[in-house]
From TrEMBL, chains A, B:
It is an enzyme of class 2 (transferase). It comes from Sporolactobacillus shoreicorticis. Its cofactor is Mg(2+). Transmembrane segments: none annotated. Belongs to the FPP/GGPP synthase family. Its EC number is 2.5.1.-. This is Polyprenyl synthetase family protein. CDD domains: Trans_IPPS_HT. The lineage of its organism: Bacteria, Bacillati, Bacillota, Bacilli, Bacillales. It holds the Pfam family polyprenyl_synt. It comes from the Bacteria. Keywords: Isoprene biosynthesis, Magnesium, Metal-binding, Transferase.
């Protein structure tokens, strides 16, 4: 990875994670619920969504502080989706990032409520963000709800469940991933454009960049499931195949998936060139997806 | 019930319910998920929360249209909470309002997602409400998230689960109900005050009215569990006792609970007198709780 990107990511990850323990400090929340919410929020991960938001703000010449509450809310929603996805009635996963999943530690009912609580509190946090004006806040609430809700992530998850044990084609797979994982990759880029109040055309170009990036990210995940190391993945190698999941690798083969990954990264870089952002954090982030090992 | 209140409630219920099938009409949502969300939204009920919002707006001299999106969002959140409460890992209920619960019809994973989808879409709807200004909208999003989230309903639900199979005292029971059911009764009254832009003191008085009303509503539910008819309740008579639930009746006896109900109704009426609203829909609504049979 490019050294500048590496330093930026490490720096912003540390800054972001230092905020997490303070999230519910002044809120009267029953202890077990608070503990369950923080357990999954603090379970690690690359924090790729918050970093995308910060990097986009930075590239647009705006201070990252302006996106902190939005990034925290976004990560809370990402985290809730993982807690609910791991439930026995869904993917029934016992490990996530090498740690026992929420329901294995706190029980199923608390895990459901911890997810519900994180999802709801995300909107509370953004609606109350003192750094940005109310008109911008209401746009962010709207965009995040649309990205995470039935038209976005939740709908993609429903289609993904229905596609299990069924062979689907590439278009169907892309439609699922555009919503299930893509919308929460697209949101931070769009949110930064809204916070920075860029013009409509520039915002649309950034959204296209983020859509290609989201697909590249998912294809990379599918490849890593086979080529990665268990320790870095936090789950067994080849678990997608063991679970008969539809992935880019199962549809296109490993080489085909690698070609598709390169296409999506190139398409994302082409968008950045249109707005003069071809040399910087956003292009480095796209290029990094080509060669990441975890 | 007072004839004017009866007509108002029937009228607003019909108006409100006519909006439900149109909610996701222009949204690209995968069919089974949309069907599952609408199934529970359209399953009936008294629509007491939307009606409280409309009645408060009406009492403040403001047209009910201004509260329609907020009332729909509120009912979506109330509905999601019922879907998740009924899940096997929570109360494991198979019947709700005389109909099979969401997970019995659509399966557990879809029921979880339908709940998540309704919760998220509620904020999307309110954030996009064309009838009210953006500053008011952001206040409504904040208040609703606070009422429904870890400090409110979700926290109350967590404490309620932890109180099962355990004897708790009256203060603990009231603390649970103030959050689990009370916050979503208080919200519509507070929301109407925000939409009507009343002064701080009047808003605080209305909030106190709503808090007493919320407790009265819950105490009435507990009494009805014993004295109501199965058909009107939509569940077996005495199911709280069968499930060893902590209720006002189990703590105070039937007569004690009836006294407490009367106290709370009187306290709510006393608040209304302070702001000259002692004769009207809001006082009729409180008095109706004294004698309701379902």
């Amino acid at each position: 990875m490019n050294q500048m990107l590496k330093a930026y990511m490490a720096n912003k990850k540390a800054w972001f994670e230092a905020e997490l323990p303070m999230l519910f400090q002044n809120a009267a929340i029953t202890p077990k619920l608070k503990q369950a919410m923080l357990y999954s929020l603090e379970a690690g991960g690359k924090r790729i969504r918050p970093i995308l938001l910060f990097a986009t703000l930075h590239s647009l010449g705006k201070a990252e502080d302006n996106g902190l509450s939005t990034a925290l809310g976004l990560e809370m929603i990402h985290t809730y989706s993982l807690i609910h996805d791991d439930l026995p009635a869904m993917d029934n996963d016992r490990l996530r990032r090498g740690k026992p999943t929420n329901h294995c530690v706190f029980g199923e009912s608390t895990a459901i409520l911890a997810g519900d609580g994180l999802l709801t509190a995300a909107f509370q946090l953004i609606a109350n963000d003192p750094f940005i004006d109310e008109n911008t806040r209401i746009k962010l609430v709207y965009l995040l709800a649309k990205a995470a809700g039935p038209e976005g992530m939740v709908g993609g998850q429903q289609d993904d469940l229905q596609a299990e044990e069924k062979k689907i084609n590439l278009n169907e797979l892309m439609s699922i991933h555009k919503r299930k994982t893509g919308r929460l990759i697209r949101f931070p880029v769009e949110a930064a454009a809204v916070i920075a109040k860029v013009d409509k055309k520039k915002k649309q170009t950034l959204v296209l960049y983020a859509e290609h990036l989201g697909l590249a990210f998912q294809i990379g995940d599918d490849i890593l499931d086979l080529t990665g190391e268990e320790k870095a993945l936090g789950k067994p190698v080849g678990s997608d195949i063991a679970n008969h999941k539809n992935t880019y690798v199962s549809l296109l083969g490993t080489n085909g998936a690698k070609e598709k990954l390169e296409q999506e990264v190139n398409a994302s870089l082409a968008e950045l060139r249109k707005i003069g952002l071809e040399n910087g954090l956003l292009s480095d982030l796209a290029s990094y997806l080509l060669h990441r090992t975890y």
